[in-house]
Design brief:
Radius of gyration: 18 Å
Helix content: over 70%
Distance between the termini: 22 Å
Number of helices: 10
Structural class: mainly alpha
Number of domains: 1
Oligomer: single chain
Length: about 210
């Protein structure tokens, strides 16, 4: 089952990312951005970056010999970090973003694949095969660097590009106070998911050790 979920997650993730790229770039250029700006726009979404991370984790563990093709993404701490991050993608989209726009056609398909299907596939895979009890509480301190770095990038890019990837990060429209509250709330949610992930990872590790006795 773990191998099936890994292959399914990799295939669905690649299809969704490539399809999203192929429809985003033309639409972005029609909206007035140049090609370089459209490419930057595509890679400026937390959802896209996190799904790329999930694909890289799956690719890193494809070898049947146990050799990691991409060692940086093969370790237990990176696997858990991606599981936490893609869970955040699922929760924030389902509870906040889904009601803010109504994508149609291929955009709707990509939204469903990237925000619902790939997160579910990755987390199920992590629970079955990726978690092994080797995460540490200290790992949380570097996991949280990812969303914080993304937030800094998004806010720094906003005045230069005249846009933000997500409406709740729009200081010009919502004000500093509102954006600060949103950023703190999402960071707090991320930390809660981190805590849950470490507990779950340790629990899975104990169960596996008992099963091998």
């Amino acid at each position: 089952m773990g191998r099936f979920l890994q292959i399914a997650g990799l295939v669905v993730g690649l299809i969704a990312l490539v399809l999203q790229f192929s429809i985003t770039i033309p639409a972005s250029m029609e909206a007035g951005r140049g090609l370089p700006g459209s490419i930057v726009f595509y890679f400026s979404f937390f959802t896209i970056l996190t799904n790329i991370g999930a694909v890289l984790v799956h690719i890193s563990l494809l070898s049947s010999s146990g050799y990691a093709w991409l060692p940086a993404f093969a370790g237990p701490r990176m696997r858990a970090c991606v599981a936490v991050s893609i869970t955040l993608v699922f929760i924030v989209y389902a509870t906040v973003l889904a009601r803010l726009w109504q994508p149609q056609g291929l955009f709707l398909l990509c939204d469903v694949l990237l925000h619902y299907v790939t997160p579910v596939l990755f987390v199920l895979w992590w629970l079955i095969s990726g978690a092994d009890g080797r995460t540490r509480w200290s790992d949380v301190s570097w996991w949280v660097v990812y969303p914080i770095a993304y937030l800094v990038y998004s806010l720094a890019r906003a005045p230069l590009a005249g846009e933000v990837p997500y409406p709740f990060l729009d200081i010009a429209k919502n004000g500093v106070g509102s954006v600060t509250v949103a950023a703190l709330a999402i960071t707090a949610l991320f930390l809660v998911i981190c805590v849950v992930a470490v507990f779950v990872d340790h629990g899975v590790g104990r169960l596996r050790r008992k099963g091998h006795r």
